[in-house]
C-alpha cells in the first residue's frame, strides 16, 4: 500500500530508535506526555516526530476534501520534556536482556560443558578460563596479580606527577562533541587525562600497563569476543573529599559485529597502594533481577586489581572517596 504523507510505519520507528541508540546520545526530547504515559509511547512519539515524512503536497487537490487552511491561525507551540539516557537504557533493557545481546558478540558460548572441556584450546595469555566464563555469564569479572607490583607503584608516582603538572582536567567540564549539550555536570567529580600509547612522552610505568592491556589482555579478549575498533585509555583521579561518579553505563548494548562506535569491553586497573576499608572509592556494580547474579557488588580498588566488564551491560558507580584514588581505564571496541 502506498504511504500517505501523514503515515508513519511503526516498524520503521523502532529501527530508527535502535539506530539512534547506538550513537549514544545523552538526551532525547519528546512531546510533553500526559500523566502516566508509558516510556515506550514517549519514545515512539519522538521517533515519529523526527522521521522524514514525504513533502507536503504543493497541489491543493492532493489534500483531503475536509482540509481547511487558515493563514491567520496561530501555530500551536509544543511543550517538551526530557528523556534521559538512563530512561532510554531502561526502555532498551525491557526489550531484551543486555547480557543476552552482548553474548552474541562472543565467538562461542563459553559457559557450556562442551566449551569448558576445550578451554585448554583457548590459548589464553593472561586471563583464566574462569574469568572468561564469568565475563560471559555475569557480564563482569575481577582479577589480581596480573601486573608487577613495582610497575604499579611506579605508575602511581607517575600519575601523581602528571596531576601536579596540571595535565588533568575535570571530566564534568568536557564535552565529547557538539551534539552533547546536556551533560550532567553533577554526576561525577573525577579529573581525567587521556593517554596515547604511541606517545614518546608517556612515563615508563604507565606505558608498561598500557602495553599489557593492548598486548596480552587484548589478545585474550579478542580471541573470545569480536573486537574490531580502537581502544581508548584514560587515567582518572578522585580527590579525597568524597569525589564520586554516580550510577551509569559505558555504552548502549549492541550485538552488531561491524559496529566500531560502541564500547564493548571496559578494563580498569587500580593503582592505589595501601588502600584500606574506609578509604572509599569502591566500584559498585549493580545487579539486575533478570540476570543470574542479581545482587549488588562492591569491589575494592586495590593496587594491581583489574576489573573487566561488558560495557553495554553493567551499570556501575564509584562510591565517595576519602583518600586519593587513581584508576587507569581502557575501553575496547
TrEMBL record:
One example GO MF annotation: L-ascorbic acid binding
Requisite cofactors: L-ascorbate
Organism whose genome encodes this protein: Apophysomyces ossiformis
Pfam families per record: 2OG-FeII_Oxy_3
One GO process term, biological-process aspect: cellular response to hypoxia
Highest rank taxon of the organism: Eukaryota
Alphabetically ordered keywords of this record: Dioxygenase, Iron, Metal-binding, Oxidoreductase, Vitamin C
Name by which UniProt lists this protein: Fe2OG dioxygenase domain-containing protein
Domain Fe2OG dioxygenase: from-to ranges: 229-333
Gene3D superfamilies linked to this entry: q2cbj1_9rhob like domain
Record's keyword annotation contains Iron: yes
Amino acid at each position: 500500500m502506498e504511504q500517505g504523507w501523514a503515515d508513519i510505519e511503526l516498524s520503521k520507528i523502532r529501527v530508527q530508535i535502535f539506530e539512534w541508540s547506538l550513537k549514544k546520545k545523552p538526551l532525547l526530547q519528546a512531546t510533553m506526555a500526559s500523566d502516566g504515559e508509558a516510556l515506550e509511547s514517549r519514545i515512539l512519539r519522538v521517533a515519529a516526530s523526527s522521521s522524514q515524512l514525504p513533502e507536503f503536497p504543493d497541489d491543493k487537490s492532493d489534500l483531503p476534501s475536509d482540509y481547511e487552511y487558515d493563514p491567520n491561525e496561530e501555530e500551536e507551540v509544543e511543550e517538551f520534556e526530557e528523556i534521559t539516557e538512563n530512561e532510554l537504557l531502561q526502555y532498551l533493557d525491557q526489550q531484551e536482556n543486555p547480557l543476552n545481546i552482548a553474548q552474541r558478540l562472543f565467538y562461542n558460548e563459553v559457559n557450556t560443558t562442551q566449551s569448558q572441556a576445550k578451554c585448554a584450546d583457548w590459548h589464553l595469555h593472561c586471563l583464566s578460563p574462569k574469568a572468561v566464563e564469568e565475563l560471559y555469564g555475569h557480564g563482569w569479572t575481577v582479577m589480581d596479580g596480573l601486573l608487577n607490583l613495582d610497575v604499579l607503584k611506579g605508575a602511581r608516582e607517575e600519575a601523581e606527577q602528571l596531576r601536579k603538572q596540571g595535565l588533568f582536567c575535570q571530566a564534568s567540564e568536557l564535552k565529547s562533541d557538539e551534539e552533547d549539550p546536556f551533560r550532567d555536570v553533577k554526576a561525577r567529580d573525577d579529573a581525567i587525562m587521556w593517554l596515547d600509547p604511541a606517545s614518546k612522552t608517556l612515563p615508563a610505568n604507565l606505558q608498561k600497563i598500557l602495553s599489557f592491556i593492548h598486548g596480552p589482555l587484548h589478545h585474550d579478549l579478542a580471541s573470545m569476543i569480536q573486537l574490531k575498533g580502537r581502544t581508548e585509555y584514560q587515567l582518572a583521579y578522585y580527590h579525597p573529599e568524597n569525589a564520586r561518579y554516580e550510577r551509569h553505563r559505558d555504552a548502549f548494548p549492541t550485538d552488531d559485529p561491524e559496529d566500531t562506535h560502541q564500547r564493548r569491553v571496559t578494563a580498569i586497573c587500580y593503582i592505589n597502594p595501601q588502600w584500606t576499608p574506609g578509604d572509599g572509592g569502591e566500584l559498585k556494580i549493580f545487579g539486575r533481577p533478570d540476570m543470574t547474579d542479581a545482587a549488588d557488588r562492591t569491589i575494592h580498588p586495590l593496587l594491581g586489581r583489574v576489573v573487566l566488564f561488558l560495557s553495554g551491560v553493567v551499570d556501575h558507580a564509584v562510591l565517595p572517596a576519602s583518600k586519593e584514588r587513581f584508576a587507569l581505564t581502557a575501553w575496547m571496541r
